[in-house]
């Protein structure tokens, strides 16, 4: 039998029968998939097999839908980029708000989204590029070239060690994995009647302790998980229109810098509802950044006033209070809600997980009820993005709920998947039902704590 022909990295010979083997480890593949949602990766192009020429890249990767490029350099860095818009050599400038570049920092891929208002690339016959800033297989050579620019806020030293020599470049086709359960794993009535029923239950809720007029619910979570967005969403439902009273967004550092208590009115001229949502600065991995655990302890016990501005390097001291009066049960926190982004559960670092564990230990010591709000379920699962009613038949969302339960040490029944309002201009029934159901559960959990506290 004739031996298989060997191919030069720069060759253009036919490679149809050459088997492709990914360099990514299974753990690295899982981490990248987690950053993209419920997807699978299929290797389309491997530069050491197909060649570093732009023509070879386009022959393998054009009109393949969303793709992920993964490059490896001789210094051991693994980095690349994702685009949801397929390559087509259309000659057009491409915009793609979902595009990001990444670099593995240890076991975790650190992703950088494209800055607003920038093109992803000129869709021509050239080599793959991102933001007209980062070019792979530059000049048909095993090289990455950074042209500079503002499309991405990158540090090439951190991203690839300023070593432009590539040892390999791979491109993967991104495909959605959709699997469903035979029966819903939780039952929800997605009806207008159910929404009305939930709103009435919430309006008429009376805390089990007479001295407590409104239940205080504390939202805790990483930066960008959706704490402020949850308040905005609940406020929107009761105002019957989309609102944005609390500052929210997707910045790398917390947009919330103060402790805020947000009462909600039943309509513009309506009475205050029997709960207050308390928003905090986002949690961050590094020490001296984000919300401090000592501040959380002071919040839980009712010492920190509304609009207190956090200082990560100087935790709040209760003895700074002007008043020495004892704190009433009304001023304390009655339920703690951990807000976790469904798309980033598998990317949670050990440092952040330990921070959450420390907070849980403190909350446990005070006997306060705890619940998890798993946000952005639509971004995590294409099935749910298409139809929110598919939430509880999605096998992927079920596995994410179980993963949150395991990582945070809470029962599965205490993990509530939701979709906040973020880009919508109008309210939507299914979203309302899901959010109101979560809020009603929080009120029930708060009553469990109050019942034990009195």
From TrEMBL:
<dbReference type="InterPro" id="IPR006073">
    <property type="entry name" value="GTP-bd"/>
</dbReference>
<dbReference type="Pfam" id="PF01926">
    <property type="entry name" value="MMR_HSR1"/>
</dbReference>
<feature type="domain" description="TLDc">
    <location>
        <begin position="18"/>
        <end position="175"/>
    </location>
</feature>
<dbReference type="InterPro" id="IPR006571">
    <property type="entry name" value="TLDc_dom"/>
</dbReference>
<dbReference type="GO" id="GO:0005525">
    <property type="term" value="F:GTP binding"/>
</dbReference>
<protein>
    <recommendedName>
        <fullName>TLDc domain-containing protein</fullName>
    </recommendedName>
</protein>
<dbReference type="InterPro" id="IPR027417">
    <property type="entry name" value="P-loop_NTPase"/>
</dbReference>
<dbReference type="Pfam" id="PF07534">
    <property type="entry name" value="TLD"/>
</dbReference>
<comment type="similarity">
    <text>Belongs to the IFI44 family.</text>
</comment>
<dbReference type="GO" id="GO:0006955">
    <property type="term" value="P:immune response"/>
</dbReference>
């Amino acid at each position: 039998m004739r031996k298989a022909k060997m191919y030069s990295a720069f060759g253009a010979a036919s490679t149809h029968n050459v088997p492709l083997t990914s360099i990514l480890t299974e753990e690295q593949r899982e981490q990248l998939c987690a950053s993209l949602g419920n997807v699978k990766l299929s290797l389309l192009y491997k530069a050491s097999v197909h060649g570093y020429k732009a023509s070879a890249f386009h022959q393998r990767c054009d009109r393949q839908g969303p793709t992920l490029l993964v490059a490896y350099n001789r210094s051991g860095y693994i980095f690349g980029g994702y685009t949801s818009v397929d390559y087509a050599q259309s000659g057009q400038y491409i915009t793609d708000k979902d595009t990001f570049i990444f670099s593995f920092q240890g076991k975790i891929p650190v992703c950088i989204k494209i800055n607003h208002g920038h093109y992803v690339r000129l869709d021509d016959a050239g080599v793959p590029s991102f933001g007209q800033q980062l070019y792979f297989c530059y000049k048909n050579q095993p090289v990455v070239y950074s042209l500079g620019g503002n499309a991405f806020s990158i540090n090439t030293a951190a991203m690839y060690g300023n070593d432009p020599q590539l040892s390999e470049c791979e491109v993967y086709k991104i495909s959605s994995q959709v699997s469903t359960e035979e029966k819903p794993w939780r039952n929800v009535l997605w009806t207008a009647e159910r929404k009305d029923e939930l709103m009435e239950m919430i309006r008429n809720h009376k805390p089990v302790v007479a001295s407590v007029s409104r239940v205080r619910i504390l939202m805790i979570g990483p930066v960008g998980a959706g704490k402020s967005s949850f308040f905005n969403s609940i406020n929107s439902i009761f105002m019957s229109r989309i609102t944005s009273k609390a500052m929210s967004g997707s910045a790398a550092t917390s947009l919330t810098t103060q402790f805020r208590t947000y009462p909600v009115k039943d309509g513009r001229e309506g009475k205050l509802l029997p709960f207050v949502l308390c928003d905090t600065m986002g949690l961050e991995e590094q020490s001296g950044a984000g919300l401090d655990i000592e501040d959380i302890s002071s919040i839980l016990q009712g010492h920190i006033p509304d609009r207190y501005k956090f200082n990560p390097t100087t935790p709040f001291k209760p003895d700074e209070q002007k008043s020495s009066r004892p704190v009433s049960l009304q001023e304390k926190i009655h339920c703690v809600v951990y807000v976790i982004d469904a798309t980033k559960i598998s990317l949670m670092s050990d440092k952040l997980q330990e921070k959450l564990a420390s907070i849980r230990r403190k909350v446990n010591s005070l006997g306060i009820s705890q619940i998890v709000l798993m946000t952005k379920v639509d971004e995590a699962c294409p099935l749910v993005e298409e139809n929110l009613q598919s939430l509880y038949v999605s096998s992927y969302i079920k596995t994410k709920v179980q993963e949150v339960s395991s990582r945070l040490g809470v029962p599965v029944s205490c993990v509530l998947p939701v979709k906040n309002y973020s880009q919508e201009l109008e309210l939507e029934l299914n979203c309302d039902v899901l959010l109101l159901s979560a809020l009603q559960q929080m009120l029930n959990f708060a009553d469990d704590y109050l019942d034990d506290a009195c």
